[in-house]
Amino acid sequence: MDAPGTGERFLVGLVGAGIGTSLSPPLHEREADHQGLRYLYQVIDIADLGLPAGAVGELMAAARRFGFRGLNITHPCKQAAVDHLDQMSPDAAAIGAVNTVVWSGGVSVGYNTDWYGFTKSFEQGLPGAAARRVVLLGAGGAGAAVAHALLWLGTDRLTVVDADAGRAGRLVTALVDRFGADRVDGGGPELLAERLAGADGLVNATPVGMAAYPGTPLPVRLLRPDLWVVDIIYRPLETELLRRAREIGCRTLGGGGMVVFQAAEAFRLFAGVAPDAERMLRHFEVLTSADVGAGRG
């Protein structure tokens, strides 16, 4: 690979639905500017194109033909993309979902930087928080990454809850194979009240709370002041869940740190150079302060 600033071009992109307001393009491109790289980040919104999640394979093939260095993959394509890869990193294979695809020598390799992003954000954003028992809402691609991160961080008992109990069950089965039956259980919303009563924390890895899916992913009456609450959504930065949790005294953490740290790791995989994650955090703060000023925060 050419050294930074010598003229090599990096064409990368993001595939997902409803991603027109994603901050990934400016996060990547601003860091590339600081690194002296010629770097273009394109958004490929399947909702705008009228395509289903299953079309991610066609889009990946087209990106390869058009010379993309790589793609980020987001909701609802993270698990569907797995079937269209030549290779997967060990973490991505274990999680069963990818959010980063890199082409090298004509071979597509899938990675998952979401779990790393969550881990770094949790350690920085909720230092000292007990995480022995945690309830996770959402068993999709993002939920799978968060589950992996929490168990890697040392959670003794993780309960995975999804509106689709079968999907929760499939994720639990995969996690049991890696971490043991005594550390994971899951099912439908009927588990929430009982499991939250004894939990240290709650993580929302569902889309509920985004502008297109307003509201809270669980009844707010189930929250209590000694519970920490994490929402991996970052648009808006303060979801209704976080606002309501903070009002009753919970420690809270939004999705900003996760999106920045996963983006930093994806940038490293795309460009082959180490980004400055703290600088990317400052970029994120500037970008989201513009949102707040416009009333979109």
UniProtKB/TrEMBL annotation:
EC number: 1.1.1.25
GO molecular function: NADP binding; quinate 3-dehydrogenase (NAD+) activity; shikimate 3-dehydrogenase (NADP+) activity
Subunit structure: Homodimer.
A GO cellular-component term linked to this record: cytosol
Lineage: Bacteria, Bacillati, Actinomycetota, Actinomycetes, Micromonosporales
Positions of NADP(+) binding: G138, A139, G140, G141, A142, I232, G255
This protein's name: Shikimate dehydrogenase (NADP(+))
Short name of one Pfam family: Shikimate_dh_N
NCBIfam families noted in UniProt: PRK00258.3-3, PRK12549.1
Function comment: Involved in the biosynthesis of the chorismate, which leads to the biosynthesis of aromatic amino acids. Catalyzes the reversible NADPH linked reduction of 3-dehydroshikimate (DHSA) to yield shikimate (SA).
Domain Shikimate dehydrogenase substrate binding N-terminal residues, every copy: 14-101
Keyword NADP (UniProt): yes
Enzyme class: oxidoreductase
Binding site for shikimate: S22, L23, S24, T74, N99, D114, Y234, Q262
GO BP terms in the entry: amino acid biosynthetic process; aromatic amino acid family biosynthetic process; chorismate biosynthetic process; shikimate metabolic process
Protein family (similarity comment): Belongs to the shikimate dehydrogenase family.
SUPFAM superfamilies: Aminoacid dehydrogenase-like, N-terminal domain, NAD(P)-binding Rossmann-fold domains
Record flagged with keyword Amino-acid biosynthesis: yes
Annotated metabolic or biological route of this protein: Aromatic compound metabolism; 3,4-dihydroxybenzoate biosynthesis; 3-dehydroquinate from D-quinate (NAD(+) route); Metabolic intermediate biosynthesis; chorismate biosynthesis; chorismate from D-erythrose 4-phosphate and phosphoenolpyruvate: step 4/7
Keywords assigned by UniProt, alphabetized: Amino-acid biosynthesis, Aromatic amino acid biosynthesis, NADP, Oxidoreductase
Recorded catalytic activity of this chain's protein: shikimate + NADP(+) = 3-dehydroshikimate + NADPH + H(+); shikimate + NAD(+) = 3-dehydroshikimate + NADH + H(+); L-quinate + NAD(+) = 3-dehydroquinate + NADH + H(+)
Active site per UniProt: K78
